[in-house]
Amino acid sequence: MQKKHNTHDSGYKKLFSNPVIVKELMLSFVHEPWVKELDYDTLERIDKSFVTEEFIERESDIIYRINFNSKPVFIYILIEFQSSVDRFISLRMLRYITEFYEYLISAKKVKKLPPVFPVMLYNGEKKWTAPVEFGNLVDKCIPEVYIPDFKYYKIAENEFSRETLSGIKNILSAVFYLENSDMKDITNEIKNIVNLIEREKPQELRLFRKWIKHFFYGNDEISDKIETSIKEIEEVKDMLSTTLKKRDQIQFQYGIEKGKHEKAIETAIALLKDNMSVDKVADITGLSVEEIKGLKA
User: Fold this and answer.
1) Residue 171: closest CA among 4, 11, 5
2) Mean pLDDT of 190-219
3) Are 75 and 117 contacting, i.e. CB atoms less than 8 angstroms apart?
C-alpha cells in the first residue's frame, strides 16, 4: 500500500505516545519471555530533552521508562517510516542510546547505567534486510572482543500474516492488518479490522479512530465507513458501561438497605427477649408490627 508519510507518520507518533499501545506492542509482538514480567503499571513516557537537536526534531524516536524487578529499564522505540531500508540503522540506534547514557552520567550522576531495550518498528513495503547486530556492519579484521556488541529487536509489520494478526485482536494488530492490506480491497476488510478491536476499551477505540483519520487522509469515504463501525462498538460499550454502573449502584444501595434491615431484626429479637412490647419494639426499630409478631412467634 502506498503511504502518505506526513500525516501518516504523525498518526503513528500519537499512537505510540499512549502507554497502552506500547504495552500491546511489547506483549503481542516482542517474543522475549522477560517482557511479560515488566511492571506495566509503571510504564511512562519520558521526553527527549537530553539528546541532540537532530533527535529532538525526529518524530520517530520514543522512549519509555518501566520497572523490571523493581529496577528501572528503558524501552527505546524507533519507528522507521522510510520506504528504503537503512543498512546502518543499528548505528543510529546505538548513537541514540549512547547520547542517552551521556545525559544520565552528566545530569543524574549515575554510577551504573540502566539497561535500554531497543525496538525498531518498520512499516515500509520492502523486505527488511538490514543487520540487527551492529557487529555485522564492522570488518572483523581484529579480534571481535574489541568490536561493539549491540543488537536491536526488529518488528517488521509486513512480516506478519493476516492469520497471525487475526489471532492477536488489539489496536496494533488492526493497525498492522491495515498496513498490509491492499487499498483496492480495503472496503471488504472493514469487518475483519473492526473484529480485531471490538474487545478494546472506549478510550483505545477513540485513539484508533484518530489514527484512522491520519492513515486515510484524503480518502474520507473509507475513513467514514470504518469510523461508523467503530462508533457502533463505542456506543454498545458505553451503554454496557452505563448499565453496569447502574447495576452496581443498585446492588450497593440494596446492600446498605439489607444491612440496615438485618440489624433492625437483630435489635428487635433482643428487645423481645427483654419482654418489651411489640408496639414499643416497632417504634424503636422501624419494623412493622406484623413483622415483629412474626419474630416473636
Assistant:
1) 11
2) 83
3) yes
Rounded Cα–Cα distance for residues 27 and 40 (Å) = 10
How would you list the strands of the sheet with 153-156, edge to edge?
Answer: 39-46, 61-68, 71-80, 116-122, 153-156
Kindly report the backbone phi and psi dihedral angles of residue 122, in degrees, each rounded to the nearest multiple of 5, phi listed first: -110, 125
> What does DSSP assign to residue 39?
E
How many C-beta atoms lie closer than 10 Å to residue 212's C-beta?
A: 22
Do 256 and 43 touch, CB atoms closer than 8 A?
no
Could you give the CA distance from residue 112 to residue 280 in angstroms, rounded to a whole number?
A: 77
pLDDT at 127 over 60: yes
Best CA proximity match to 91, nearest among 120, 63, 123: 120
Three-state DSSP class for residue 232: helix
Q: Which residues are within 8 A (CB) of 28 and not within 5 positions of it... i.e. 6 or more apart?
A: 168, 170, 172, 173
- What is the DSSP track for 44-109? EEE--TTS-HHHHH-SSEEEEEEEETTEEEEEEEEEE--SS--TTHHHHHHHHHHHHHHHIIIII-
Q: Dig out the grid coordinates for 209 from the structure.
A: 479512530
Show Cβ contacts of residue 24 under 8 Å, excluding neighbours closer than 6 positions. 170, 171, 172
251, β-bridge pairs: none
For the entire predicted model, the pTM comes to: 0.73
Of 51-65, 144-158, 217-231, 266-280, highest mean pLDDT: 144-158
Adjacent-strand bridge partners of 155: 121
Residue 151 CB partners (closer than 8 Å, separation 6+): 90, 118, 132, 133, 134
